[in-house]
Write a structure and sequence with these properties.
Chain lengths: ~190, ~200
Amino acid sequence: MVLDGTERELIESCQSGERDSFRTLFEIHKDKVYSIALRYSGDETEAMDIAQETFLKLFSAIRSFRGEASFESWLYRLVVNSCLDKKRRGRRLLPLVDDLLSAIQASGEGVLHKLMRAELSERVRAVVGQLPPDHRIVIVLRYTQGLSYEEIAEALECSPGTVASRLNRAHKILERRLAHLVETRGGRSGQRY
Amino acid sequence: MVKGIDAELCRSLAPVAAPEDLWGRIQSPACAQPGEPLRWQLWAFAAVLAAAIAIFCFNLRSDTTSYIAGVAASQLTNGQVDFRSADPVEIRAWIKANAGFDVPLPAQHSAELAGVSLIRGLACVSYRIGNHEARLIVAPGGAAPPHHSMQSVVYAGAALSSWAMQGQTYALAAASQDLRAACVLCHAEGPARPRG
């Protein structure tokens, strides 16, 4: 049994239908679920849909959770399935006006740096968003949640070897597409890509 | 990996805080977001289904049967599965291992299987017939009578049917008016969609 006492009590309380316990469980895990959804989809509206679906699925299926695996693994599996079930939609490839405006509205010092950082992050997320879904979800779980290969494997219901292989392939793609950006940031400032 | 990209990934994909209104959306899932016509259609369909379930349940005698028919209908708009597989043998084994009862899915059929979920102890097999979603819900024995007593209704584009057989209770829901098409999961003689 992986659950500690408090978590087990909370889950048992949810399984018996305690409304307040659902809220507590939601508060504990909402950022995690939403972060994965947002980093996977790259779209706030879609991320809300994924998070909503994940929690609805969680609440409706929690009685079937038997505590044989960790609750967190089970939750990751739910959010991964919600992500992978979503059809990929078109993503923005350029920094949003909002990002630029918020950077410009910041204090005068370092505005350019903030703009460049915002743009770079946006580019990184855009390139991640272009990865195939099974590679993208591995990258998100690894870099958004810092999961180990074993934890990712459990969430994806595959072997750690498969995770390693997908991460390796994803890294190679990202290296090829982002190396130029990192170089630009490091030394050749002003060069467009 | 080029030095710096790893760090950029960590920074660019860093966790974020969930919006405040997420809980509200979970409590009231029927509240669709603006600019999403497809979601409106889905919720409208769900509302119609709820009405269908209510009518169906009113006309049924057996609580168990009406309950699982309701579950079958409510799952029509849920595309998620606990175990994804197109292999009936794998699905049958998964149900046996995880739910503890047998669902006699034939190895040969012309449905497009998507997988299976466990919903409060019921097995929910998800599949498609042509362009139509279908769900087969099976409840283990107990209250179910041993005889075959089928109840069916077609309402607002969705077809529901439930019956008891060999000590288990079954419910079938299909997003189609032709429920017989959904029967091909277990009955090869149904009006099957040719494959391959």
